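Reminder to self: C-alpha cells first, then the designed residues, so the page reads top to bottom the way the pipeline ran.
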C-alpha cells in the first residue's frame, strides 16, 4: 500500500519557519503511523525528530496531529487514516512551543499539571496497612486514572491553545478531579486556589474536543463538570 507522509519539519538552527516535506512509503494497511514514521527515519531521512517510547499506547510519547486530529501514532493504523495513494499529514501538537519537527516543549503543560497537586493528600495514618476503599468509592474517580499525560486533550482544547493560554487545561483539571473524588484524599482546600479559579475548571467551555481525542476514552469534559458541581457545593456550604 503506497502512501505519502506529509510531515511538518522545522529545525531552529536552519529554518526560519516550519514547512512540510513529503515522503513516499510502502506500508501494510495494518501497519501503524508510527511504523511509517520509523521507516522514514531509518531509511529515508535520519534527521527526522519524532518522539516515541513504549510504542503500545501507554506512555503517550508519540502524540501528534494526524490528518488534523490529535492521536497516538502507535495506536493509529494506516488503513484508518488513508487509502492507497493518499496522503497522511502529520503535525506537532498545538499550544506548546515547537522545538523541532514533531517535538514540542511540554514544560508548561507539566507545570500546570503539578499545580493541582496530583498526589494523595492525607495526614492521617491508615487504621491497618492501607486505606480501605469500596468498589463504589473507587469507581467515582476511576476514569481519570487512565490518563497517560499525552497532551492530546490540551492540544485539542481551543480555550487552552487559542483564547486563554492561562487555563490549566483538561489534563490538569481531570487530575484534580481524580483526587477531589477520592474518598481517601483530604486535599480539596489545598487544590481549590487552582481548581476554583477563573483559569481553573471554570475556564472550560464544554467543547468536548478533549473527550473526542482522548486515546484512553476518558470522559474528560464530564469529569471537569463534576468538579465544577463539587466546588459549587462547597462554596454554598461555606456561605
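Designed residues (239 positions):
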Amino acid at each position: 500500500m503506497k502512501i505519502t507522509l506529509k510531515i511538518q519539519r522545522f529545525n531552529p538552527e536552519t529554518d526560519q519557519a516550519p514547512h512540510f516535506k513529503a515522503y513516499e512509503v510502502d506500508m501494510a494497511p495494518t501497519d501503524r503511523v508510527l511504523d511509517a514514521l520509523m521507516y522514514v527515519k531509518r531509511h529515508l531521512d535520519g534527521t527526522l525528530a519524532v518522539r516515541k517510547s513504549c510504542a503500545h499506547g501507554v506512555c503517550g510519547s508519540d502524540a501528534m496531529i494526524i490528518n488534523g486530529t490529535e492521536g497516538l501514532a502507535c495506536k493509529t493504523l494506516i488503513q484508518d487514516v488513508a487509502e492507497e495513494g493518499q496522503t497522511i499529514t502529520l503535525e506537532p501538537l498545538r499550544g506548546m512551543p515547537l522545538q523541532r519537527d514533531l517535538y514540542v516543549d511540554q514544560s508548561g503543560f507539566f507545570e500546570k499539571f503539578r499545580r493541582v497537586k496530583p498526589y494523595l493528600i492525607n495526614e492521617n495514618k491508615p487504621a491497618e496497612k492501607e486505606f480501605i476503599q469500596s468498589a463504589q468509592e473507587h469507581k467515582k474517580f476511576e476514569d481519570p486514572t487512565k490518563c497517560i499525560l499525552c497532551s492530546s486533550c490540551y492540544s485539542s482544547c481551543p480555550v487552552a491553545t487559542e483564547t486563554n493560554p492561562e487555563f490549566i487545561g483538561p489534563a490538569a483539571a481531570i487530575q484534580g478531579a481524580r483526587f477531589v473524588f477520592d474518598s481517601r484524599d483530604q486535599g480539596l482546600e489545598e487544590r481549590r486556589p487552582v481548581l476554583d479559579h477563573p483559569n481553573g475548571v471554570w475556564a472550560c467551555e464544554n467543547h468536548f474536543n478533549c473527550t473526542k481525542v482522548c486515546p484512553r476514552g476518558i470522559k474528560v469534559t464530564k469529569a471537569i463538570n463534576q468538579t465544577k458541581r463539587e466546588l459549587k457545593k462547597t462554596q454554598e456550604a461555606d456561605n
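The chain has a mean pLDDT of 96.
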